[in-house]
Design brief:
The complex is a heterodimer of chains A (356) and B (326). Chain A contains 15 helices and 2 strands. Chain A is mostly helical and 356 residues long. Chain A has a domain of 196 residues: MetI-like (MetI-like fold, Orthogonal Bundle), CATH 1.10.3720.10. In chain A, a hairpin with a 2-residue loop joins β1 and β2. In chain A, α5 packs parallel to α9 and α6 packs across α10. Chain A is flat, with a radius of gyration of 31 Å. The N and C termini of chain A lie far apart (65 Å). Chain B has 2 domains: 63 residues, no CATH class; 200 residues, MetI-like fold (Orthogonal Bundle), CATH 1.10.3720.10. In chain B, 71% of the residues lie in helices and 3% in strands. Chain B is built from 17 helices and 2 strands. In chain B, α4 packs across α17, α5 packs antiparallel against α15 and α16 packs antiparallel against α17. The longest helix of chain B has 34 residues. The radius of gyration of chain B is 28 Å and the shape is globular. The chains are: A mainly alpha (356), B mainly alpha (326). Chains A and B meet through α2, α5, α6, α7 and α9 of A and α3, β2, α6, α7 and α8 of B.
Amino acid sequence: MDNTQKAPKVMRESKNRIRVEFEDRTPFWQRMKSKIFSMYFLTNVVWYLFRFILMIGVSYVILFPFFSKIAGSFMSPSDFVDPTVCVIPKSPTLDIYKAIILENGYLSALFNTIVLSLSTALIQTFVAALVGYGLCKFKFKGNSVVMIFVIITMIIPHETIRLSMMQHFRYFDIGGVQGLNIPGLIQGIVGIFGGHIEINLMESFAPLILLSVFGLGFKNGLYIFMMRQFFTGVPDELEESAYVDGSNTFRTFFQIILPLSIPMMVTIFLFAFCWQWTDDFYTGIFFTGDGPIRLMPDILEIPKSLETAASYAAQKLYYTAINNTCGIMIILPLVILYLFCQKFLVQGIERSGLVG
Amino acid sequence: MNQAQNNVSAPVVEAPVKKKKPVSLTKRKARAGWLFVLPFVVGLLVLYIPIILDSICFSFFEIIPTTSGYSLQFQGIKFYHQALFVNATFTTTLVAGIKQLLVDTPMILIFSLFIAVVLNQKMMGRAAFRAIFFIPVVLSTGLMETINASDTLSDYMGGGSGGGISDGSGTNASSEIVSAVDIERLFEGLKIGTGLVEYVSNAVNSIYDIVNRSGVQMLIFLAGLQGISPSIYEASSIEGATAWETFWKITFPMISPMILVNAIYTIIDSFTSQSNVVMSFIAGIYQNSQATATAMSWIYFIVIMAIIGLFVLIASSFVFYQRRDS
């Protein structure tokens, strides 16, 4: 009686791999046919193509303005009136770059902005970690009140506090007694020593640094919130075991929690650095542009030597190209930073435990 | 023996000894907690709350510069009155801005959720796409926003009809990717109202704006999607659920807290950004009358708060929270 199937042949290919051969295996073509013409396969292919095209399309939408900016930055004035030039310039020059670097004071602006962004971003990251940790891991009275205030700082629009922010740092006065029009204690003390002292913090880094130290800078509420969400994902047992081993709160924080949260802190640092870099609201309040410190917003102007370089017909487009080139020069350092840090950005967010 | 006696009598006889008693752990932890949040709390009390109070003050007072600083003169609700009834365009701008907000928010949410779902799947070049998609988060803020707004060059390079991307500045018909007519033709047999057709064509045409504004939302959704345990999907696929069912019955409920967070974030983000209609209007007013501008932004703030409150109230009953078994 040999109507049962033969036992499949088992061959040993290598040390931990075997190959099983069936006698009456379905022919290759039949297998492929049933695979390719099944609905499942077809939907998958369609979805795959659709997804790929969509992704490429959206990437194009994101990248196109950058391409056009870069292309425009190399064009000479004659290219803008030439109807045959669309994207690739016929007579490429570096005039615009040269003029921006030499006349608009790009290098000093770059240096100042690096100092400002780096210092504020470092302080903001650290303070956000500190406050976020305190809000997450310690249950004290007023915890939720502080959290509500963090959210409030996030949602009050900047425009609302613009005027009073400026007044506060123009006539700097801790406690704000002067602003409330109450004959203040500090005023009184100063009055005894003769005269009125006016502390003007405008045109310096002080207001931004001060705001960062207090965790009130640009979008700091969001950083604190992100840090807090991250720490909820860190198990309590970790700290408990540290406490059992005799470590105090601060040592636990610096030696155990901080090294753990480096991906998240890099993310926040990246946000803080980039957003401070391109920020024109706070810098617009505290720097009028006439002061000694040049920052990135100040280089956004038409260089003198290029003002009359283009003919009337090309002028509008040429000015736009110059503006765009300023934009490229402003974000160039950020692009380099982003290329190195984007892995951290995605990882940090994914691990943040933002869930729930 | 002696020791025990001491212990018993100590609280009664020597009160100072009792004070030396070590503080309980919860109390010590509370103190440490306050120490950690100290920078923020100090900043809040010393800087932020005075600034906020001042800001409220400034909308009621007139600032008169003097030789030593400034003095304030009480004006009552004059500036609010000015904002609401004297200034002809504020209320219309406000209504238009809110309308815009209500239109934009769902578009941004749908788009970012869709992209996040796609980016979460395994596909060719996923890392590269992710890197590209998060570029706007980092680069298209603040200064770049103002530069982009005045960028006529990309319209020019788009070559007129067809290829151009409207980045908010190009309102001319030639730079639109699709017009309402195209979509109308597509939906001809479906008996969809013109409102919806316009909405869709608007959405397609302002794709650049939407992509730029949905970066953080994408990140949050992606984090949420990563948090859903794969075993749930596995179980449902074994039970024979299709991808469509899986999305609506698993992904959507699990992601609903993220949708709430993102909706609030989108509203806040778009109403604090300077490209916003109302915000740019207020910034324009600021040049002439700072107090009126402050009053206006407070009115705007209250309106937006009301919208967010209403939204949270309605949405929170639909949000599904997974119970943690920890």
